[in-house]
Design a protein that fits this description.
Chain lengths: 426, 148
């Protein structure tokens, strides 16, 4: 079905703002028509967020397209944040790994960052997957329409903030921002935000966020779940702890499945406003107890060559950690080391967070305390690190279900990770 | 021989051997290694996909339910097309997802000399029936013929 465009949109499509802009509009229109969109709606958020942060040599076609846009004077109508940088010298890597990073993989990084600046990058420190943190400042308001990509950020913006965004791909994110409109379909519509699944939480203890998200993602795939019984463990206010939990939970639903929006009964904004009327007639049901979470965890393949290898690295913070999380984990690591009798972590451990959150953390007493435990902090994207073939073959552990899904990293629960890195008993 | 009718996302005609993924195709994990290290046959690098891992994707009729994974998926597919390392066609049993759709549209609008027919909504029976190596013919109207 052809989309109905307003006068301005039709003029752009006809070339009123040049051939390149017309192609950008054509891309957005064709994209929308596949999903039955009837019209384009304005992007209303203050800032955009892009997924492509890495100058990977393999993506030359993307950088050529960016050049094409810049040469035609076509830039983003909004400033934007972007996913984390792929390299940080603070993160342990041997000489060969560094050579692969710098000479074979991310050879276009500097060049690409220059393109991003010209296209509308918010600032030099705008590289993070958790752009919605207060410290970063790209936090959309309820009901705003976005042209974001990055699955973990999209699911957070939709679910926790009540903004409206589809699971856009890289490049589409930028093009929506360039034309100022996105096609109205899916999670931009009332109907698309209603739940096809009811998930009932019947656990005896607070479910691990990353594990619960994984279980739900794998079950519902791209559908919207309405989760009942989680507020018993998280409360009914979106405080720092609840938001941190939902950040990790959502990232797992989005990466282990393809969830773009979830509702938590009694907690997330639309669930609070509309309640169980958000559930569609005939919705399927999924009951989760402790045994089901154990079953899901046991189903993860371990793809290390030597399954009993001693871990060489631990990553926490995919998605990037919150300030609250960095503080909580500082205390947990200190207590773990005290219990095990060790002075420093026994496995090289990297906590990742946005540059802005790390700056705020650096102003607290916790920074020196965490440093004393031997934990390294970084703004890196652990996924980009693990894409190095030499890192892929290393035994890396993580409590991130997203990192587990996309790489060879092995998943452990938070308690298990703490025991591993402090040398204690779980 | 069996015929299936789907919806045309990107039109074209092609004949190619089938390569079947019963699980979702993680586009980034599948193509990254091939794009990065000059593998012109685009050997699938996704260790989590037992159907495709280690198999060459260029020139095949890639049969799949949907794509999954990172929202870089669309641009990875676009890059594969720009570098001529794309499958001969992509045949989805389910309605296409937003990431694969983005890749198909970006390739269609921004890459001049490449054709990759994309058909979706072929139904679960299509994926149950088709096996690796079967000959696939795609017609311009979205008819997909599968021959043993």
């Amino acid at each position: 079905m052809a989309m109905l465009l307003n006068e301005e949109q039709q003029a752009i499509l006809n070339g009123s703002k040049g051939e390149t802009m017309a192609k950008v509009m054509k891309t957005m229109v064709k994209y929308g028509e596949i999903f039955g969109a009837e019209r384009m709606v304005p992007v209303t958020s203050k800032y955009n967020h892009l997924v492509t942060s890495f100058g990977l040599k393999a993506m030359t076609a993307v950088y050529e397209l960016m050049d094409q846009l810049l040469e035609a004077g076509v830039t983003s109508g909004q400033k934007f944040t972007v996913d984390p940088r792929p390299i940080d010298k603070n993160v342990p890597a041997n000489l060969l790994q560094k050579a692969i990073f710098n000479l074979a993989m991310y050879t276009k990084q500097e060049e690409y960052e220059e393109q991003l600046k010209k296209l509308g990058l918010l600032s030099d420190s705008s590289f993070t997957c958790t752009c919605y943190m207060d410290e970063v400042g790209n936090k959309p308001k309820y009901g705003e329409v976005l042209s974001w990509a990055e699955s973990s950020a999209v699911v957070y913006a939709n679910s926790v903030l009540g903004a409206r965004c589809n699971r856009n791909s890289g490049i589409i994110d930028l093009m929506g921002s360039i034309v100022g409109y996105v096609p109205e379909f899916g999670l931009l519509t009332e109907e698309g935000r209603r739940a096809k699944w009811v998930v009932r939480i019947h656990t005896e203890k607070k479910p691990e966020a990353q594990l619960l998200g994984s279980a739900i993602g794998m079950k519902v795939m791209e559908d919207v779940p309405y989760v009942i019984g989680l507020d018993k463990w998280l409360g009914n206010e979106l405080d720092d702890a609840a938001c941190t939990y939902l950040k990790d939970f959502g990232a797992a639903t989005a990466s282990n499945g393809a969830v773009g929006l979830y509702h938590i009964d009694g907690l997330t904004p639309e669930a609070k406003q509309f309640g169980q009327s958000l559930i569609l007639d005939g919705a399927q049901e999924y009951v989760i107890d402790d045994a089901e979470l154990e079953r899901v965890k046991a189903s993860y393949p371990v793809i290390w060559k030597n399954k009993d290898a001693k871990p060489k690295l631990c990553f926490m913070g995919c998605p990037h950690m919150s300030l609250e999380q960095l503080k909580t984990w500082t205390v947990r690591v200190e207590e773990g080391l005290k219990a095990s009798g060790n002075k420093k972590v026994v496995i090289p451990t990297v906590f990742t967070a946005s540059p802005a959150v790390l700056e705020a953390f650096g102003k607290t007493e916790f920074r020196d305390r965490l440093k004393a435990t031997g934990v390294i902090t970084s703004y890196i994207c652990p996924l980009m690190y693990m894409n190095n073939p030499l890192c892929k073959s290393m035994p890396v552990i993580t409590s991130s279900n997203k990192l587990r899904t996309y790489t060879s990293a092995r998943y452990y629960t938070d308690d298990e990770i703490l025991a591993e890195i402090t040398g204690g008993k779980n | 021989m069996k015929q299936f009718k789907g919806r045309v996302i990107a039109e074209g005609e092609v004949k190619a051997p089938a390569l079947v993924s019963h699980g979702g195709l993680n586009t980034l994990a599948s193509f990254q290694k091939a794009l990065q290290f000059g593998d012109k046959k685009a050997t699938c690098g996704d260790q989590n996909n037992p159907d495709l891992y280690g198999k060459q994707m260029v020139g095949t009729a890639l049969c799949l339910p949907q794509t999954i994974g990172s929202t870089t998926g669309g641009l990875v597919l676009y890059c594969a097309c720009a570098m001529k390392r794309q499958p001969a066609c992509m045949l989805f049993s389910k309605p296409i997802d937003s990431l694969a759709a983005a890749g198909a549209v970006l390739a269609d609008v921004w890459v001049d000399d490449v054709t990759m027919p994309v058909i979706d909504s072929l139904g679960d029976e299509f994926l149950d029936y088709v096996k690796d190596g079967m000959t696939i013919t795609v017609d311009i109207d979205g008819t997909v013929t599968v021959e043993e």
